[in-house]
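Workshop exercise sheet. Pairs work together: one partner reads the sequence aloud, the other fills in the structure field after running the prediction. Swap roles for the next sheet.
Pair: D.N. / O.F.
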Amino acid sequence: MHPLTVERFCEGVLAEVERVLHNSTERAHQRYLDIFRIMERRDREMARLFNGLKRSQGLMMLARIRSVGLLTEDEFSSLSSETRGVIQMLLDRD
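Structure field:
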């Protein structure tokens, strides 16, 4: 599941960059700065979501991935009911 969710995340980042890149109302330098800021922000987000893949942090990581919409309903449903319950509990307390 991890490689698939990373791929989805990266596709979202690239779509965001593409929108800025093709915004012809902005000057090239402004688009460059906007893209740079996007990449900085999204790199921090990617690190928060995917770095430190340890078994002890797996449920928390799944909860974060679900909270940003990178885990499909089918993928979530394929998890055990106990795992789904813990993930939901983690999401509810935030």
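Discussion prompt: The longest helix spans residues 28-50. What would you look at next?
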